[in-house]
Amino acid sequence: MNTVIFRTLAPLIVAIMLVFSVYVMLRGHNEPGGGFIGGLIAAASIAVFGMAAGVSAVRRSLRFDPMAIAGFGVVLAGLSGLASLLTGSPFMTSIWLYVEFGPTIIPLSTPLFFDLGVFCVVFGTLSAIALSLESDREEDL
Amino acid sequence: MGSSFEAGIGLAAVAPFVAAILAPYIQRFAGAYAGWILAIIPASIFLYLLGFADAVIHGETVSSVIEWIPAYGINLSFLVDGLSLIFALTISGVGTLIILYSGAYLAGHHHQGRFLGYMLAFMGAMLGLVLADSLLALFLFWELTSVTSFLLIGFDHSRQAARRGAIQALVLTNIGGMFLLAGAILVYQLAGTWEMSAVREMGEVLRGNELYLLVLICFLGAAFTKSAQFPLHFWLPNAMEAPTPVSAFLHSATMVQAGVYLLARMTPSLGSTDVWTNILVIFGGITLIWGSLGALKQTDLKQILAQTTIASLGLLVLLIGLGSDYAISAMVVYFVAHAFYKAGLFMVAGAIDHEAGTREITALGGLAEKMPVTFIGAALASLSMIGLPLTIGYFAKEEMYLGLMSADWTAILVMVVLIAGNAMLAGVALLVMIRPFLGEAVATPKKPHEAPIAMLAGPILLGASGIIAGILPDWLGHDVLVPGASAILGRAVESHLTLALDFTSLLLWLSALTWLLGVLVYRQADTIRTLLRRFDKALGWTADTVFDIVMFGLIRFSGALTRFLHHGQLEFYLVIVFAALAAALFGPMLVWGGLDWLEPAAELGDWSQRLIMPALAPYEWGVLALAVLGLIAVLIAPSRLVAILSLGVQGTAVALIFLLFGAPDLAFTQLMVEILSVVILTFVMTRLRLDQRDHRPFEDWARDGTLAIVCGLGVSLLLMLVLNGTLDTRLSDFFTATSVPIAHGHNIVNVILVDYRGFDTLGEIAVVMGAGMAVLALLRRQKKPAPAPSDQVKPKRTRKPSKAAS
Fold first, then answer.
1. In chain B, positions 725-744, which contact chain A (CB-CB < 8 Å)?
2. What is the pLDDT of residue B604?
3. Pairing of strands B61-69, B3-5
4. Could you give the CA distance from residue B738 to residue A102 in angstroms, rounded to a whole number?
5. What pLDDT is stored for residue B805 in this prediction?
């Protein structure tokens, strides 16, 4: 499975998949997509990358332990819910902020950060499992 | 009665906890003087509380409320009245002396700072318990005393006996705690308020209710476990494994008195019924006799004192049960007297142990010369325990006899029990005072010398207080008895304590009889001990051994249950899961007639007419065929790898179906899940080296196949059933209508996930992460048995956990 073609192409595929996963996550509020699907795509890309480049290389390039990313996701989602307490409304009431950025208006909201949290959890957990399984395979061989 | 508001009361209960956190640092900084420094906290609480004395003596109450959960009407409310003030002053006063004492007793101990911290935390819990007005606050502090006492009893955790004593105390007092919680909730249901000050006014409502007995059992269960009433008394002697300062504090004036406090507190609400009186008097009486007999059985000073504590607790419960003005007055005075002499005696026992190296009274003697100040402390306390005139113990005894001066046969019976108990306690007091200190000097493991001043302050001050209170009956009556008894009974009580000895009164002669019997018990102590021990041996078992049997039985039972349920065979887990799924699918459908439509109706005749081919485009048929083909491929696959891939084909086909029928989000997710599950399954399978086709016996194959078919059929039938009925579209209508205007999103699925149902999602992602960690843990654990053969791999493994930790 570990052919030259695959190894050469994999980084390219992974890069595209990662960018695409972020795109899917961000468009989620209005078009099909969202944090869960985005996280799945990103995790799949990491699994592919692991097959092509080896687990240690992937871990190095990730910089953070995937499980730490997942933990960060849960915290981020929780904090985005807590943000509403600042306005005196109940937990998880969404807050919307429209930032003018030149000609376009960028809508920022707490659900966006919540979705980012979901993305991180799915991405982190599944990459951690995939990488762990792959590294086992490597060590056994 | 007036009342005023004082915000600082809550602070008094919280301050010890803050001090507890700081204690280890202060100890490290101050070393041997830590005891003196930390004693400032309880001392200042004592003085602060003393400031309320004037108001309370004049019949006022002082309260304080901190809002806790206002939505449910739950507050951390505190109330100072006669009863709580007496308890709180005792706790903080004795606490000051104990902290001082601990500073010297554990001087140089490795964990002295921690010990002082536990002590202070316990004191805070105890103060909170007696000052609390809300039943839930009471419960909170009640449990805190259990936890902190667990830490204190098990302080010397390297010894098995200490661990056992700690666990036993925790188990029993926590069972009591559960009773208290249940009782508190019941009272709230009946009275509609958590505040005990309000509940006290509603005694009639509670007593008249048919649930009264249940409420009573709950509160009695709590009080009897905490205050070591027979037959739940056995944890108290085992708790003597704690360092002596702990016993002096917890098992004299504080923790074990919490049950007594609770009973006194609930007297206006639950008391003065026949059941109440009978239960309390009978159990209190048995405990009194049992404890005093137990004390005579022992030779270890601390064990003797522990058993007398049980006896005294029984006496207090008995007095509360009697409930007359005299009995309650006697209870208040006896509580104070007991706190003075028992804490003092425990400290004396600790001092003897500390300086002479043993606590066995048979191995001690003639210490009075070497430790004169300790002897004075012991003598003062013992005299009060015997109840001689000019000590506070005398008034306690007089009061309790006074209440029973009638010709009623029950009163005479109780009187006999009281005299017998008091006489035995007096005998024990003589034993504790005379045996170690007077007579021939005996060689002890250590060369005895006088204890340091911090260890002497307690016994001397407490002993002296016992005498001073005994000389000033007017003060005792007016400033202690009246506020305390009035607060318990909820009506004004008169004091009639006097120093004058009336030789014509029967009362004095009853006291004299008690003393006489006490001396007799002292003279015959060794004979009685032998007799009692012989009886014990004949009996062969005690409540203690029963506790062990129950605990080990529980452990064995849970072990057996775990082995039964967690046999570790994945195949059976899956069989059970899917069998349960099948039952869950078919059970309701069968019970509520969901399958009736399957029966061919008579008028229908031909089944084939009912089957109408769905109108599908050719490519849609193609996708369906793909799904079916994938499924067949799974079944006939020559190797596991092919089976996994075929499963992926089938899943992808399902994703395509979702896409074609208007659920792009679902299709998208399904597709990604399929890809990832194929990847992960492949990894798992290659890791397990199971890439051949599996050879299972036919039974397994048939069983799994049947289950699969049943589950699939169940899901299909359920879906058909749901589609046949009318769907309630209120919710989806709401989402469709409001998604854009209030949630600013066009993708309803996503809006539901991150906004409407965000809380659910938060829980789900937490579960996802938890499951991921469990998977990682399992994967790592499996690696352990087979250590890596090559050294190259090792650094990688050690890196992983450190990364996870960061």
1. 743-744
2. 55
3. parallel
4. 30
5. 37
Rounded to whole angstroms, the Cα distance separating B16 from B118 reads 10
Note whether A133 contacts B684, CB cutoff 8 Å: yes
d(CA A60, CA B143): 49
pLDDT < 50 positions in chain B: 1, 786-806
Give the pLDDT confidence score for residue B77 in this predicted structure: 86
Q: Does B802 touch chain A (CB under 8 A)?
A: no
Distance of CA A103 to the CA centre of its chain: 29
DSSP character at residue B357: S
d(CA A81, CA B290): 60
pTM above 0.90, yes or no: no
Hey, what are A136's tokens?
């086992």
Please report, as a single letter, which amino acid is at residue B161: A
pLDDT for the residue B797 = 39
Q: Do B768 and A91 touch (CB under 8 A)?
A: no
Cα–Cα dist B531/B533, whole Å: 5
From CA B542, how far away is CA B546, in angstroms rounded? 6
CA–CA distance, B784 with B99 (Å, rounded to integer): 49
Query: Token pair for residue A105?
Result: 């208006």
What tokens appear for B50 in the block? 């003393």
Nearest CA in chain A to B790: A139
Residue A71 clears pLDDT 90, i.e. is over it:
yes
Q: Which residue in B740, B750, B780 has the most chain A C-beta atoms within 10 A of its own C-beta, making it the best mutation to test that interface? A: B750
How many Cβ pairs closer than 8 A exist between chain A and B? 156
> Crossing angle of helices B506-523/B525-539, nearest 10°?
70
A140 interface with B at CB cutoff 8 Å = yes
- pLDDT at residue B601, rounded to an integer: 56
Question: Between A115 and A106, where is the model more confident?
Answer: A115
- Of the candidates B673, B687, B773, the beta carbon closest to that of A140 is on B687
Q: What is the CA radius of gyration of chain A?
A: 18
**Contact criterion met (CB < 8 Å) for B751 and A29:** yes
Q: Show the DSSP H helices in B106-256 as ranges.
A: 112-131, 135-153, 160-191, 196-199, 203-208, 212-226, 235-238, 244-250
How many other CB atoms are found less than 10 A from the CB of residue B169? 28
- The whole-angstrom distance between A98's CA and the closest CA on chain B is 12
Which of A56, A91, A126 to substitute to test the interface with B, most B CBs within 10 Å?
A126
The predicted structure's pLDDT at residue B605: 57
d(CA B652, CA B671): 6
The shares of helix, strand and coil residues in chain B, as percent rounded to the nearest 5, are: 75, 5, 20
Side-chain half-sphere exposure of B299, counting CA atoms within 13 A: 13
Considering only CB atoms, A37 lies closest to which of B668, B754, B776, namely B668
